[in-house]
Amino acid sequence: MTLPPPKQPAEHVERVLCVLAHPDDVDFGSAGTVAGWTEAGTEVTYCIVTDGDAGGFDDTPRDQMGPLRRAEQTAAAAEVGVTDVRFLGYPDGRLELTLDLRRDISRVIRQVRPQRVMTSSPERFWDRIGASHPDHMTVGEATLRAVYPDARNPFAFPELLADEGLEAWTVAEVWLGASPRADHAVDVTDVVHRKFAALKSHVTQVSHHEDLEGFVTAWMRMTAERFGLPAGRLAEAFHVVHTM
């Protein structure tokens, strides 16, 4: 029996929703890919679950860190063509896989009605433990549960329909970042300057890096080589999950 070839991601979609735990998560892992999507005419929305108030490397008062990081993420999003940035306001570093979190992500899915959702992998990446922040894995799992079955099931969280008029919506693709089983690479060489501009917007997080561009470039170059791209190219990688 001959197996069919692996299903490929859609070449173009109208709307994408990126659901990440912290401000800057999308920019380190995916901003080049996002820049390519927006340049091609795709509408991209960010849903950031926390304000990142437990981050930073200086003595900024904790009550100021959350608002600072919201502003930084909004500025970073603009660098890659994203103007719709939503924050859920959950506590940084203390995320748990709750029904409330699933409902709140389902709400945004039904509001945005994306054909594609990007989020973090719920799997621990044993070869690169830094990719597996507990908040990242929690958001990845909560988002996958929101994609299936919650957002597409009209009887899940019925208050979303009854009280808010948000009808069920089926997401066709989920792209998981920082996945140990990545199977799709996006060449971001031609838009990498936009990714760096986005990253540099996160002053509270990256100002201590002496060579941020060099570090991130080396990382993307290794990804490109791993996926067989030509020498000198830069890439971001994802595990693409088809849900239909």
Largest beta-sheet details? 7 strands, mixed
Residue share in β-strands: 15-25%
Class per helix and strand makeup: alpha/beta
Molecular shape = globular
SS elements, strand count: 7
User: Termini, distance in Å?
Assistant: 23 Å
Number of domains: 1
CATH architecture label: 3-Layer(aba) Sandwich
Identify the CATH homologous superfamily.
LmbE-like
Instruction: Tell me the series of helices and strands, N- to C-terminal.
Output: EHEHEHEHHEEHHHE
* CATH fold-level topology: Rossmann fold
- Number of helix segments? 8
Rg over CA atoms, rounded to whole Å, is: 18 Å
Cross-sheet strand order for the largest sheet: 3-2-1-4-5-7-6
- The low-pLDDT segments are none
Overall mean pLDDT: 95
Percent of residues in helices: 25-40%
Keywords: Zinc
Protein name: PIG-L family deacetylase
Pfam families: PIG-L
Organism: Blastococcus jejuensis
Question: How does this model look, in words?
Answer:
The protein has 244 residues and is α/β, with parallel strands linked by helices. The chain has a single domain, classed as LmbE-like (Rossmann fold), CATH 3.40.50.10320. It is 39% helix and 18% strand. It contains eight helices and seven strands. The chain has helices spanning 25-39, 62-79, 99-112, 134-150, 159-162, 192-200, 203-206, 212-226, and strands at residues 15-20, 43-50, 84-90, 116-120, 173-177, 184-187, 235-242. Strands 3-2-1-4-5-7-6 form a seven-stranded mixed sheet, sandwiched between helices. Helix 1 links the parallel strand 1 and strand 2. It is globular, with a radius of gyration of 18 Å. The protein starts with 14 loop residues before the first strand and ends with a strand. The model has no long low-confidence stretch (mean pLDDT 95).
